[in-house]
Amino acid sequence: MKSSSQSKTRRSLLRLGMGGAAAAGVAQAQSRETWEPKKQIIGLKPGEVRKGGLLSGAVRSGHLLFLSGTGGWYPDRRKEPGDAKVQIRSVLDAMKAKLEAAGSSLDNVLQVTICLADMKNNYEPMNEAYKEYFPANPPARSCFPGGTFRREGSLLQVDAVAYVD
Questions:
Q1: Measured between alpha carbons, how far is residue 94 from residues 2, 46, 71, 140, 151 in Å?
Q2: What is the pLDDT confidence band of residue 148, given thresholds at 50, 70 and 90?
Q3: What do you get for the CA distance between the two ends of the chain, in Å?
Q4: Which helix (H) or strand (E) element contains residue 13?
């Protein structure tokens, strides 16, 4: 049964015409009470806290998946820092694994942000390897210089937004 306030709101919007009717449906579909899940941390059980970190590797909200920034080189995982090509491949492989674990894929990536330590020397090699992962219908992308990163030898950091069916 509809509440009195919902009925009044719908009637007011319906008076605006067909556009108002569509708006009433959208407003109800996206209301705080009906939209789920608002925020789901991927890779953790409900109530579990990520050990040693203040961020989540991936967060799902509705059909959107937000991947946290992943650096190009971590000594405990990749012993040699490598060049921008090596690092972007490593990051995009990690991104692919996170996407697949969340029920998505590289094909579903909507937007990518890349921060490069040295735009002049790293942009072309990074871009060359990046094209291997997104050969057709690439996502929207931003790329900007970022100075130095926390880990010496890291040349880039990448984050992304994707959708999950």
A1: 47, 23, 10, 19, 18
A2: confident
A3: 31
A4: helix 4-14
Q: Look up residue 97 and give its two tokens.
A: 């694994």
Structure tokens at 10: 């719908």
pLDDT digits (tens, 9 = 90+) for 29-78: 445 565 555 777 776 555 555 566 666 778 888 899 999 888 887 656 65
Give the residue from 69, 94, 91, 72 showing the smallest Cα distance to 83.
72
Given the DSSP bridges, would you call strands 58-61 and 109-116 parallel, antiparallel or unpaired?
Answer: unpaired
**Which residue from 140, 149, 98, 97 is spatially nearest to 122, judged by alpha carbons?**
149
Within 13 Å and on the Cβ side, how many CA atoms surround 48?
10
DSSP 10: H
Domains within the chain, CATH numbers bracketed: 1-34 (no CATH), 40-163 (3.30.1330.40)
pTM for the complete prediction?
Answer: 0.70
Burial class (CB in 10 A: 0-12, 13-18, 19+), 53: exposed
